UniProtKB/TrEMBL annotation:
Database matches in Pfam families: TPP_enzyme_C (PF02775)
Listed Basic and acidic residues bias regions: 149-165
The entry's keywords: Oxidoreductase, Pyruvate
Keyword Oxidoreductase: yes
Name used for this protein in its record: Pyruvate--ferredoxin oxidoreductase beta subunit
InterPro entries cross-referenced by the UniProt entry: 2-oxoacid:Fd_oxidoreductase, OFOB, THDP-binding, TPP_enzyme_TPP-bd
Protein's gene: porB
Length: 312
């Protein structure tokens, strides 16, 4: 028996298997969009037949960060904005793990924004879900990077003087190889997009619109969403970068007029992931690096004693 033998075991997985035996009741407020992310993630993993032992869910800090308390798999609740670097390291150490990172708009587009840029640039093979509720939820409704200009909160009582970030355009420019936007009120689309994103080999970024009825009552999250793949007004090729960029720009402008567009925006299936690039130049082995820690006979090129000696 090795610590890795659960990976790739082929069997049907019921969605209830991701519900933890302890603390099964989520403490999100009634009507919170975060419930939909949990539901879509359970549905997607079950559809893909992923065993809980095959999955690592890494979260940031916020209401969104509670996700891995309610999803039974390997989990790592990290620091504010730091889900991506932890997820990247885990994927490099064990490429067979299905690694999903998740966090809020404050977490991923504010304090952790730099990590988003570089994870996209390097095309790490992980799925990143950003719960976008346009505020800091857990800390009671302060203005976040996605709050609209003029949005009033305790930290901006006269209204925000800043334009919001453009998450889709930023992600594409940085280098993400799969970019989509879905919404808590659109559970079927959310699950379909999550399945695609998890299956995609490379960095998949999903901007997931999640309403916060407690602290963001005037948000536009309740208006009907338009699925750009289902609507003839929006024809473009998701594999064509300039066309995707134009569609994203239109989407990020439309949101100010209360028009919420969702769907798949971009995918590049040709580009190699960071792990594949590193394997191609011989910097990391084909087998999971992490297996070496379980191999008593493995001869390390550098040992802790050698490092200590070098610093004497
Ligand atoms: C370094 C650091 N700064 C600030 C905080 C306080 N803090 C906790 S959650 C949070 C905001 C969370 O907002 P968001 O990421 O949008 O998640 P949400 O709660 O809306 O899901 C902040 C500022 C912290 N935990 N760590
Ligand atoms: S404060 Fe907002 S984001 Fe947090 S659990 Fe409640 S509704 Fe959800
Ligand atoms: Mg938020």
């Amino acid at each position: 028996m090795s610590a890795f033998n659960a990976i790739d075991a082929d069997r049907d997985v019921e969605r209830d298997e991701y519900t933890p035996g302890i603390e099964p009741q989520a403490t999100w407020c009634p009507g919170c969009g975060d419930f939909s992310v949990l539901k879509a993630l359970k549905g997607a993993m079950s559809e893909l037949g992923k065993d809980p032992e095959e999955i690592l869910l890494v979260t940031g800090i916020g209401c969104s960060g509670k996700l891995n308390s309610y999803f039974d798999s390997y989990g790592f609740h990290t620091l504010h904005g730091r889900a991506l670097p932890v997820a990247r390291a885990a994927k490099l150490a064990n490429p067979d793990l299905e690694v999903v990172a998740a966090g809020g708009d404050g977490d991923g587009y504010g304090i952790g924004g730099n990590h988003l840029t570089h994870t996209a640039r390097e095309n790490h093979d992980i799925t990143y879900i950003v719960f976008n509720n346009e505020i800091f939820g857990l800390t009671k409704g302060q203005t976040s990077p996605t709050s609209p200009k003029g949005h009033e909160s305790k930290t901006q009582p006269h209204g925000s003087a800043k334009d919001p970030v453009r998450p889709l355009s930023t992600s594409l420019t940085a280098g993400s190889s799969y970019v989509a936007r879905t919404a808590a009120v659109n559970p079927n689309q959310a699950q379909e997009i999550l399945v695609e994103a998890i299956e995609h080999d490379g960095f998949s970024h999903i901007d997931f619109l999640t309403q916060c009825p407690t602290w963001n009552k005037d948000a536009k999250q309740y208006v009907p969403y338009i699925d750009i793949q289902q609507n003839d007004d929006y024809e473009f090729d998701v594999t064509n970068r300039p066309e995707a960029a134009e569609m994203m720009y239109e989407t990020e402008l439309a949101v100010h007029d209360g028009e919420i567009l969702t769907g798949r925006y971009y995918r590049d299936d040709e580009r190699r992931s960071y792990t594949e690039e590193k394997q191609a130049i011989g910097e990391i082995p084909e087998e999971p690096l992490a297996e070496r820690y379980h191999d008593d006979d493995y001869e390390w090129e550098r040992t802790y004693d050698m490092i200590l000696d070098a610093h004497k």
